[in-house]
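Long-time lurker, finally posting.

We've been working with Histidine N-acetyltransferase C-terminal domain-containing protein (Desmophyllum pertusum) and I want a structural starting point before designing mutants. I don't trust myself to interpret raw outputs, so I'm hoping someone here can both generate the structure tokens and explain anything notable. Sequence follows.
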Amino acid sequence: MEDSAIMLSYSGERLVGLLVCSVVDDGRTFVSRAARILPGLRGQGVHKMQGKAMDEFVRKTFPKVRRKRLTKQDEKFPFGRKLLQQDTLSCCVEKARLRSHQVHQITGRIYSSALEILPCTKEYLCDVIFARRVAQKLFPDNVIVVEYFPIEPLCSNIDYLMQEHDLYFAVEKCSDGVAPRSISFGVLSPRVSNCVHWSATVYSSVPALYEAHLVHQFRQACEVIEGAFIFSCYQDKRFTNCGRRVFKQLLQMTLDEERSKKTMNLYEIDFP
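Top reply, 14 upvotes:
Generated this for you. Predicted structure of Histidine N-acetyltransferase C-terminal domain-containing protein:
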């Protein structure tokens, strides 16, 4: 992919590590996305050497880059400023035990005529949601995190993500001339574990809209995915208890408590 780099590390002829990065935000941001080291070589400085080599490559290849961003589950990372923290809620969905009519019955409980979540086109996302007056309210930190990937609200970034992910956007139904107060992003993502994941991220300051988006994303995942899958949602911690109630009472799903203890933390490092 354009504006992506994969760095491989070898010991002799043996592959011992890799590092993946992307350059987004119109060339201003370098995102460290994935790093792997052979278990037997961890703690021996291989990752540090990889990082230095990638930094130097980015400096030479992408001279506009001014900052490095990375997401980690560690809540304390000594080398960067924390920009954002989101809680995680996750469950395993066994489609064999959840019939289609049950999904509609469960999700129908939360909807009212005054609150409806609808699919959103990329054009609407770029033209309306990313308009300055709307984006400033929905994304006060001027950053969106989709599938652990931080981006600014720019159409070019969405184009970039759509090259590697199946993305789904949803927004609440609004009257003409009324600015949306919420948006959610869904990502259909195969993982190394061979189990399909649906990752949803909701942006809103209104609890009722957060609930409606969570249920809508769950319903969409059930309609798109045929077999068992893992459904995860990322949100501001003020909505975590609300989300737990939605999972347990409305969706009637059992949370994976181990996964749901994790947080997504976004860090930034100056990149002169």
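Before you design anything, note these points.
Residues 19 and 35 are 4 Å apart (CA to CA).
Helices lie at 46-61, 100-108, 122-129, 132-138, 155-162, 207-224, 240-250, 257-260.
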